[in-house]
């Protein structure tokens, strides 16, 4: 049995390019599907957020029954502070636009990711969860994931998904500009990329597939 650390956004809004506040949080499916698969396989899941704030699901992500299912997850409503996390065997970052608002600039999360990648610890991120890679930098400012190949929410999906040019920045472009190789599939395709210990998924449709790939490495 392994301990899997879920690093979840604590953000509730994303400031758009026009200055307006867009309600956000984590994407429900991207947390629920991997959580269920990992727990069913016998692994322990612990949750952490920046500052230990209780995370919220993006209202747009909630399908019927999701709110009840999320409320029943032990520890989700009272996560650990990122600064206080202990040892873990794998780490998982769900998406939603929230990570663009906090994890993309969180130094504690960035150091955690850099350390996990350097140590070869299985590290999985899905959709906008990959925004956390922007904060995982070396002393020279280069990204720890530079040169690696990932799947991430694409610019095309951002435009099709509603925010479009109102997004404060585009994840695919930001990763490419920092030296990360983005393997982009067709919009909304279930697409997973594995590069050493790094497992990444393109969108919500990839959530369960990312979790299965992570399970293979535990």
TrEMBL record:
Residues 28-216 form the DJ-1/PfpI domain. Pfam families: DJ-1_PfpI. Keywords: Glutamine amidotransferase, Lyase, Stress response. InterPro entries: Class_I_gatase-like, DJ-1/PfpI, Prot/Nucl_acid_deglycase. Belongs to the peptidase C56 family. HSP31-like subfamily. This is Type 1 glutamine amidotransferase domain-containing protein. It comes from Microbacterium gilvum.
